[in-house]
Write a structure and sequence with these properties.
Layout: H1 2-23, H2 27-43, H3 45-52, H4 58-69, H5 75-86, H6 93-107, E1 110-117, H7 123-137, E2 141-148, E3 155-160, E4 163-168, H8 169-181
Parallel strand pairs: 1-2
Antiparallel strand pairs: 1-3, 3-4
Length: 184
């Protein structure tokens, strides 16, 4: 229930941000701006707690946001952040930014592929993953979100939406173990 209510609050703000971006030809700029915000929030649990705390004065939140984003985000995007503070929705900032990016990808026929690898991928490997995902999905382009997990031992796991393609050594060993455990 909580997730549904949260989603119902996030979607209209993300759509409004996308509409603003499109009307002023700022979709790419807002994508960068939302990425910056997501990076700031991911790097600081204190910032997340500060913004989410309803007891903190809204003006203090605005000042912190201005200081963190001065000359880094477009003025319209900063105004949007101030609006979220005024409407007491700043606690939804990360979700709104993520949803904005998802809406923009959908609009541009770009899919997000979450790639987990045992080691850092080379440029050639990244290109191969992008081409494989394009073939699988029919998307115009692919955005990669890469994470490193040494426990995979080797290979990659690619997640696109609800589809998972497990080409990891750990996955192969698990499948082999399951097949060997079955009676003949």
């Amino acid at each position: 229930m909580q997730t549904t209510i949260r989603g119902e609050l996030v979607e209209p703000y993300a759509e409004a941000l996308l509409s603003l971006a499109q009307s002023h030809n700022l979709a790419d700029q807002f994508q960068q701006d939302s990425g910056l915000i997501l990076d700031l929030l991911a790097a600081s649990a204190e910032l997340q707690e500060f913004l989410a705390n309803p007891l903190i004065n809204p003006d203090a939140k605005k000042n912190v946001l201005r200081q963190l984003t001065v000359d880094k985000v477009h003025g319209y995007f900063l105004n949007f952040l101030m609006l979220l503070v005024d409407r007491r929705r700043i606690n939804l900032l990360a979700a709104i930014c993520q949803q904005y990016r998802a809406l923009l990808r959908k609009l541009r026929n770009i899919v997000l592929a979450e790639v987990i690898s045992a080691v850092e991928l080379t440029e050639q490997q990244r290109h191969a993953v992008v081409e494989k995902v394009k073939t699988m999905t029919g998307a115009a382009d692919v955005e990669l979100a890469i994470a490193i997990d040494p426990e995979l031992l080797g290979g990659v796991v690619i997640k696109v939406g609800s589809q998972i393609f497990d080409a990891s050594l750990r996955g192969q060993l698990r499948r082999l173990s399951v097949s060997l455990a079955q009676p003949v």
